[in-house]
Amino acid sequence: MQTIIISWAIFYFISISGVNGNLPKKIYGGNTVSIIDNPWQVSIQIRNQHICGGAIISMNFVLTAASCVTSQPNIVYGNIEVLSGTNDLTKNSEDLYWKIHENYNPHINWINDIAILKLSSSLYYSIYRQKAGFPVTITNRALYRLTGWGNNPETNLMSRYLQQINVKTISPKICRPQYYKEYYLGDSQHCLFPRITTAQITWGNGGSPVMMARKIIGIISTIPLDSQQYPVIYTFIRPYIDWIKEIEKKFEC
Fold it and tell me: For residues 170 and 226, what is the distance between their CA atoms, to the nearest angstrom?
């Protein structure tokens, strides 16, 4: 387990603390999984409290949701840390920097809800800490899954260990007229449901990766109050891959 310091930027960088480890969104009713099987998973924390998930995309960068680190485009949360290399939330964390998508807008249903965190020191790859990739092709027949730390809605207690659930995705063309007629959904805002009806994605899992094998399909963005009746919205990654690579290149030094 490794701890790191983070900072972030919209058009500039601000120093804040981080861990190489809005409201929290979480998974409830999933299965406990090992970090060895999900070595890209991280916990984003404020004062050692889990608020969001994220995914390692290189030894220097973590991908998450913009809504995890800012309430408004020009207002950033302080004392943010990232915990990596463990499925246990009781471990210690690290520091970083970040870049929020310049067109992120929480007032238009959190469109472009994506951010890149730059770690203040590089990660050391191991069986517990590896990067997730981006898919070349995507098929609707593939099995998608979501990992994160879950809050039991009955006890309001956070799970200590990393959880996983299988999910089914819905394209914006189907999701928008069926579930969100009164809201604007952009083409990169896709929807998903847990495949098991008793499972829930509850507050704390924003920023967690939607995975197809070892590839990131999306990042959890917004979660309805009733996630069993209405689908969760996630940011579909494919339109942002060039942006991600550009930010990595720009801030690699």
Answer: 17
192/38 Cα distance (integer angstroms): 20
Q: What DSSP element (H or E) covers 163? A: strand 163-170
Task: Return per-residue pLDDT of the chain as tens, 253 residues.
Answer: 544 444 333 322 323 333 333 433 444 556 788 999 999 999 988 877 888 899 999 988 999 998 888 776 666 666 778 888 888 776 655 545 545 555 555 555 556 889 888 887 788 899 999 999 998 777 666 789 999 886 666 676 767 888 888 998 888 888 888 787 777 778 888 989 888 877 777 666 789 999 999 999 999 988 766 656 788 899 999 999 999 998 888 877 5
CATH architecture for segment(s) 144-238: Beta Barrel (2.40)
- Could you tell me the residue ranges of all domains in the chain? 2-24+39-130+241-250, 144-238
Give the dihedral of Cα atoms 84, 88, 90, 95; nearest 10 deg.
Answer: 10
pTM of the full structure: 0.81
Identify the DSSP state of 126: B
Return the ∠ at Cα 119 (arms to 116 and 124), rounded to 5°. Answer: 120
Residues 6+ away with beta carbon under 8 Å from 248: 57, 58, 60, 61, 116
Contact 80, 46 (CB under 8 A): yes
Q: Which amino acid does the sequence have at 77?
A: Y
Q: How far apart are CA 171 and CA 236, in angstroms?
A: 10
How many beta carbons lie within 10 A of that of residue 184, not counting itself?
A: 11
| CATH number of this structure's domain 2-24+39-130+241-250 | 2.40.10.10
β-pairing verdict for 232-236 and 2-9: unpaired
The three state secondary structure string of 93-116 is CEEEEEEECCCCECCCCCECCCEE
